[in-house]
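Q: I have two molecules that I believe assemble together. Could you output structure tokens for the complex as a whole instead of separate predictions?
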Amino acid sequence: MSVPHISAFYFGSIALVLIGLYAILVKKNILKMLIGLSIMETGVNLLLVSIGYISGRSAPILSEGIGPNQAVDPIPQALVLTAIVIGVATTAMALSAVIVLYKRYGTLNVEEIRRLRG
Amino acid sequence: MNGQYASLLIALPLLGAFFVPLIKGLGKKAIKTYVLIITAIQTGIAAWVFQEVYSTGKPIIVIAGGWKPPVGINLYLGYFASLFVLIVALASFLMAVFNFKAVDVEPIDKYAMLFLLLMLGATGMIATGDIFNLFVFMEITAITAYALTAYNKTGEAAEASLKYMILGGIGSSFFLIGVALIYGATGTLNMAQIAQLAGHINPTVAQVGLALIIFGLAVEAELFPLNAWAPDAYQASPHPVTAMFSAFVVKAGLYAMARVLYLMSSVGTWHNVLKLLVVMATLTVVVAEFSALRQRNVKRMIAYSSISQVGLIALAFALGTQAGVDAGVFQMINHAIIKVLLFLGVGYVAIQLGGAEIENFRGLGKRMPVTAFGITVGAFAAVGIPLFNIFWSKLRIILATLQVGYTWAAFLVLGASVVEAVYYFRLIHTIWFEGEGERISESIPLVAIVVALVILVIAIGIYPNYLWSISQKAGSDIFNVAQYIKNVPLMGVGA
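A: Yes, here they are, computed for all two components at once.
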């Protein structure tokens, strides 16, 4: 089984973070900004998993033929599991705020949503 | 008593929040009373922990599930954490009293749950000894804060909440990248073990990881480029929640920042990060004070004032000396007292008179004399006038700044205090010397809280030494990392 070199994972995940950040900074539509936020979170999660990856080892489920020495680092996977749930909760929360915002303002353009200022 | 009972500080608000839906049918008043009782018990436990830690001089280490650190997660209730857990619980308790007057929007059961979870998140952030656990508690705090900001369901509330969520989302992603880098370099998530290994990791990796973590926490801690959400959130959220944000959510972020910063103090490139933080903190103070100057909404004005005080605390923590950290802790305590007083007063006025615009404050001295008096004392103290508490902490921070040699920072911060005096005295003038009005009867529990806080402010202002010695102990808890490592019973696993 040929596995890409580990730096491809790092490069890909950081690229996802940057794409997400770009979307948040540049897009005018709030929903697109939230999509950017989700992409960024995905990138972070992928980075976390790839940090725990040890070349050539299998999933850290101890069973016949797979001992502790043949498994990848299990800790980042626990972290990512938590971070994914947190990301989903934040997104759900943000989407419900977007619904309220659209009902009250009638627009999702960040340049027009400026009632609080000063 | 066994120190492991201190884990109730986390368990009680969590259980309390889970039981709210069960008593939902009993009505509004019952739910508010329930929150009041839970926060009162929490205050009792926190007071016990505080007394225990300060009388024995040893930190309470709660070991989760019997797995010794660094394998398991531990809570570290040292001098600092026990003090601030008490402040968090007390502020929540006072705001639970305020809830009776201040929160009429439905659904109250969800409000009660979020209120308890906010208290839980801040307590956890302060108590935890594990860096990923810190992230989880930070997210609990942040997500409840987002929801509570949007609680009033007006367009403004949703707008403020969305700004907060997007900034907070970026911040927490960066924090997590920082955690990933540090985990990749050290192979551990336990703070004590990270501190132990910090000297041996690649300084560039450590610097980038630390900077990312600081950047992520700066969103919660309202430092300059990342604090645009704060005035909006303060203005749009329910009044008790505003006071909680200012009294402890920010403090939890600042504390976490200071803790992580000093853990890594043996890293070679540490001073670069400190310099960055000094610049950010000074800018926070200056920008916030000038923004406060042109506000018409008093709640927003005090929000900016709160941000500037937080900048002062961050400046003190960024100095990298014992004196600075002590002064920062002292300012954190004083600021928590003052901001509970001010936001309680202003929130109460906004409820009675329908809005926190400055026009409503005309003639307040004649209409609501006790509340007006409370706001006045809070304003005097915030400016830093002698005989009030913040005078002492501001003085200590300025002195510590000069000691390190940042004359420009001390100069800018002092200059900003003059600006602060201008807008607070304008408010006081509007309250006492303008407008006429009928007397409005004030609610007795709230007036009692205001008077008690005023007495506390003046008492600390006249006798600062007791609190100063507590702050010194709490400060050494953050600054003395070697002692911190020694206190946590590491099993000697891993690298």
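A: One point stands out. Chain B touches chain A at residues 132, 135-136, 139, 143, 146-147, 150, 153-162, 165-166, 168-170, 172-173, 176-177, 179-180, 183-184, 189, 231-232, 235-236, 291, 294-297, 300 (CB under 8 Å).
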